[in-house]
Design brief:
This protein has 287 residues and is an alpha/beta fold. It has helices at residues 26-33, 44-57, 69-77, 98-105, 107-121, 135-150, 172-179, 208-220; strands at 2-6, 84-88, 126-129, 158-161, 197-198, 201-207, 221-225, 241-250, 255-263, 266-267, 276-284.
Length: 287
Amino acid sequence: MTTLEASPVTIRLLSGITDPADRLDLNGHEAVHGPLRLPGRRDAGWSNRFVAALDESGLTGRGGAGFPTAQKLHTIRAQRRRPVVVVNAMEGEPASGKDHFLATRVPHLVLDGAALMARCLDASAVQICVPRGSRVAARSFAAAVAERARAGMREAPFEGVQPPARYVAGEESALANWLDGGESLPLFRPDRPAFPRVSGRPALVDNAETLAQVALIAATARVVSGSGHPRGAGDDAGHRIGRGTCAGHSRGGARDSGLVGAEHGRCRRAAGWRAARRLRRYVAGRR
């Protein structure tokens, strides 16, 4: 009997990052997480196991709504047209910096998650949305896409776009509406489908951290013979941890910010956060 089992080692979001300025290129990313191995197109057996792993992990969207990720996949898989996958790195909460931190430090983890979602749905493309003005994040994603192309990775084509940097521009319907040529404003959808569309195609819109978590779950859940896949194989396995942003001042007086985990209500220092002298702000992410 073929089932899914968790790896005994839980790989965390910021593994491989030892300094706030570190960025994992493709070689560094694969040294930590291993190379991404995608199945062939329309492999229904693999897709079913992949969705089951996400379902059993309990992963929910990290953009604020907390909608079950596996349920989104179930809904879009039932549609007839090939969908598109949208990486939402718009950082809708003004005080938050987690999307930017992931984009500039571990972009390949986010792209692995997007590529896995695209293969599961047989998506036609992946669109990476970073707000205008976020040049560092946009360059980091562009460099990561180029590295993957040079490595000959067979995955859905990536396209980077930069919607307006507005507070509501990252809301799911606003983002899809802008990608479809409209204004970057939320749509009132009482009688519309539960998912947005881009160019008439269903759109899977997921937050950057959600996709990074998807990659971790896929990396730790492998096809083996034995017992079933236990709940919580992602970054939060065995911990009550939410993701958030800390902001403060370094010893040199410069403002600094970083992505941290909050376990049982405490702000945990992570990935070089030791340099911060005073914590000025903590913005909690969705668990």
